[in-house]
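User: Please fill in residues for this 92-position structure.
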């Protein structure tokens, strides 16, 4: 019974969060890592800015280009201690 209680109290490190969709792409994050993901990107050539909000270090921003219809990961980053979120926004 005690082992069950410990298992239920342990945090789930694989649970992901996600930001809102922007032109077919969004950010996902876990405990320390995040990535950009597209599901049928909506522009011919779309540039996205991916912002990784790290808890105890300088936030990182990257610009990536994906083609229309692209589906899959297009960027990833690992924070040292904890990630608060990953945001994907289109740039022009």
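Assistant: Residues filled in for all 92 positions:
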């Amino acid at each position: 019974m005690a082992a069950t209680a410990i298992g239920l109290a342990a945090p789930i490190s694989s649970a992901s969060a996600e930001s809102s969709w922007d032109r077919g792409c969004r950010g996902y994050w876990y405990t320390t890592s995040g990535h950009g993901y597209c599901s049928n990107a909506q522009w011919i050539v779309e540039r996205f800015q991916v912002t990784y909000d790290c808890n105890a270090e300088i936030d990182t921003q990257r610009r990536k280009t994906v083609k229309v219809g692209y589906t899959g990961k297009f960027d990833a980053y690992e924070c040292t201690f904890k990630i608060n979120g990953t945001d994907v926004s289109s740039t022009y």
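For context: The chain has a mean pLDDT of 84.
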